[in-house]
Structures are given as C-alpha cells and as structure tokens.
Amino acid sequence: MSKPTQLTIDDLKKIMRECAGEDDAVSLEGDILDTSFLDLGYDSLALLETAALVKRQYGVTVSDEDLHGIETPRAFLTKVNSVLAPV
Amino acid sequence: MSTTTSTEKARTVVTGIGLCAPNGLGPTAYWKNTLRGQSGIGPITRFDTSKYWSKIAGEVPGFEPAEHLQGRLLPQTDHMTRLALVATDWALWGAGLRSTDVPEYDMAVVTAATAGGYEFGQREMQKLWQQGPDFVSAYQSFAWFYAVNTGQISIRHGMRGPGAVLVTEQAGGLDAVGHARRQLRKGVRMALTGGIDSSLCPWAWVAHQVSGSLSRSNDARKAYLPFDEDANGYVTGEGGAIFVLETADSAAQRYPVRVYGEIAGYAATFDSRVPGREPGLRRAAELALADAGMSTKDIDVVFADAAGTPELDKAEAEAINGLFGPHGVPVTAPKTMTGRLFAGGASLDLASALLSVWDGVIPPTVNIRHPNKDYELDLVLDDPRHQRVRAALVLARGRGGYNSAIVVCEYNR
C-alpha cells in the first residue's frame, strides 16, 4: 500500500481524536489551524502520541526535538508535508 | 493555644465516600447489597480463563467509563484509574464539596496501589513485542504506574497540595488514610485518599496464580472462607474506596455537612523476620487504640483482614483474642462478598466501618458454614447485626509483613 502524499487538517483531527480522545470542553470542530495544541487541550504527551500515529500511517518521523518547536496544527502539518512532498 | 498545637491535634473526619465494589457500584448500591449478604464473586468475564485453573473473581459490574469520564481521559487511563476517578467524583459530590471551594495548595491527594495499571501495561507490552516500539502508547509512560491515580486525581481537580502514593499491598488502603491524616495535621484542609486496585487481565492472572494463596476452588460460595474449617485461600477482585477527609474545623465551617465518622486512631507495624516472633498485627491494633485514646471496651466491631488461609486466619484470631479476649467483640469480613481487593480491600473495609458507624448496623460475613471453633471469634454470620456502633477497628495485612489498623468512631462535635 502506498503512503498518502499529504496530511490534511481533517486527517490530523482524526488522528488527534483517535490517540488522545476528545471531550466536551474543547472541540476540534471549525478552524483550529492556528489554535495552539495546549489551548485545544493537547499536552506534550498527546502530541507525542499524535506524532507516533503519523509515523505509523504516513512514514514521517517528527522527532521529539522538532515537536518542541511545534505549537499549532498548522506548524505540525507544515513539518509533516515538507517531508511527504518536498517543495 | 497556638495554631501549631491545634493542627497537631486536628481531628480528622470523613465527609465523603466514593466506592466501586464487585457487589455494588457506588456507596448506596454497595451498602444495600452488603447488608443483604449479596456477593459479587463469580466467573471472570473480562478475559478468557480457559487456560487458567483459577476462573473466578469479584468484578465491578456495570461500569461504563464513557458514561462517567470525558473522552480525553480514556486513551490515557487503565481501568483501575477510571474506577478511582469516578469514585473520587462521587466522594466529592457526596461531601458537597467542589475542589474550587478550597485553595489549591490546601488539598492533598494520597492513594494506595498494589499493581498499578496492569491491564494497560499488558496491552502496550504486547504492542511492543508484536508490532514494535512505534506502536506503544506515549501514555504507557504513566498509565501503568502505581502513582498514577494520585496524579490523575490531582490534575482533574486542581489539587496541588501534598501528593503521595503508598504501596504496602493490602495494608495500603489504610496506610494512605493514615498518611492523609498526617497531612491534615500539618495544615492541609482536606485530602482525597484511599485505594482502588484492579488487575484482572491474563498477565496479572499468571502472577495471581503463583501467589500461593489463591483459592483452588472455582465455586463462588466455597472458594473464600476465612475463619472456616474449610479455609483454602482467597479470591481476588477489583475495586476499593476513595474518601474525602477534612479537619473537623473545615467540616464545621461548611455546616451542615454529613460527617460519617472520625478517623480516631491509626498505626502501622512490620512483622519481624526473626522466626517465632509474634506477628505485628496485634501491636498495630494496640497502637491504633492508643492513638485514639480508647480501650478495647470502646470498640463495637472489628473488620478483619480475613486472609482465608488457615495459618493467617489463626494468627489474626490470636491477635484479636489477645486484645479482646475470646468471643470478646463482634468480628466481620464483608470482603467474603467481594474477594480480596489488594489496597482497595482495606479501603473498602474502612468504608464499611464508617457506614456501620453512620447506620448503626454491622454487615455480615457470608458463606461460612463451619466456623473454626478453636478461633473463639464472635463472627457476624449471614445476617447484619443491628446495633449502635460507636467505634470500629479495621485491620489489614499486606504481603511482605505489613500490618495496619484504623479506629473510626462516631463524630461528636
């Protein structure tokens, strides 16, 4: 099976729900591209878990060091997609 | 009187009880079923036991985590943590206390644990060996850990005062409460404390089966018979209790609030490794009575550790009779309806003791058909005994030589 060539925000939302759950307090609906992961209720471990799932499904490794600098879904997508489809 | 002196002697009361037991989810169901003698021990449903010789346990019935906890918590929690979080919510609710009512550093969390998140750990270990490290949940970093319940409770309720976890096997369910009381005496206003354990998964079952004392019987009514001539080991189970402990001053400020009872005395001892020495259980009970400023005459019931093996039952009977004399005090073991719940067991016994004091009734011990007469115990068998319970003594022994005792009593302002 070929790996997908792009990670979309909807893909990312699905992954986040799967690995860290969702609750009533904070919704992932709507435009969350520039909302920080912390404001979405996703702490560093939730982000690690997200990165692990992306690695399994997309074959892209986001290192722990890279994760430190990633604060929003947009930054996460940019990082992953730069590897999936280098400009 | 200086402030320091008053906190050193601060009286500690229980204003909230939350529990999950094999014979009842929540205090109301548990107490009703316990007084009726209804057991929660039965065939294990949580995993396939066909390859194991032991096939029965006390499982908490009807617990649907998603009904009680938000989705965010589910991927990061073991079953026993979910039980503990829900029990904590019930305890706070029953106490009429919101964690926002108390300054965050004035709230302590002290829990006891025995196996940690075993089921979670098994699942992630299987992923590690079958699929590789990339498949192991990041939450494995804490979800399996003994201290996880203290951490998750603290985070959920913003309780930033002293946090601790005690690991002393069955005795832990009392030791946690003893330590929480210590924190209240150091000036903390309230504490959430107690223990909830669950390890009903194949990996844990392998360990349970080699413990040496698990009953060989798979008959729910004959497998766990403490103080019986046919005692042949114990049945295990899951669950336990979480308490809201407050200083009497704190409770009085919130008046009217239901005070189940007072934690009047606590003590812990170790068994000696020297052969032939008396086990430390009697001394733990004596020290707890002394701590409470009470004598044996003040105690209306003893909640026994009830190990279920002839040797340990005999030792406990000797400890009780050494203090109270033969047939000197009603003795009961409602855990005959739940199995031994590790740290959760002693906490559940403490909940039963408090409910006894509150309700004026001693819950029964069930399934005992041939009480060993040599033990000379006044066992409360089959039916509850309705009487005033001014004070109760709760005993617990943990594998490895731990002994703990708590005295609870009616609270008089």
From TrEMBL, chain A:
Residues 6-84 form the Carrier domain. Pfam families: PP-binding. Keywords: Phosphopantetheine, Phosphoprotein. SUPFAM superfamilies: ACP-like (SSF47336). This is Actinorhodin polyketide synthase acyl carrier protein. It comes from Rhizocola hellebori.
Automatic annotation (TrEMBL), chain B:
It comes from the Bacteria. InterPro entries: Beta-ketoacyl_synthase, Ketoacyl_synth_C, Ketoacyl_synth_N, PKS_Beta-ketoAc_synthase_dom, Thiolase-like. The keyword NAD does not apply. CDD domains: CLF. SMART domains: PKS_KS. This is Actinorhodin polyketide putative beta-ketoacyl synthase 2. Coiled coil: none annotated. Gene3D superfamilies: 3.40.47.10. Keywords: Acyltransferase, Transferase. It comes from Rhizocola hellebori. Belongs to the thiolase-like superfamily. Beta-ketoacyl-ACP synthases family. The keyword Calcium does not apply. GO terms for molecular function: 3-oxoacyl-[acyl-carrier-protein] synthase activity. One of its GO terms (biological process) is fatty acid biosynthetic process. Residues 9-410 form the Ketosynthase family 3 (KS3) domain.
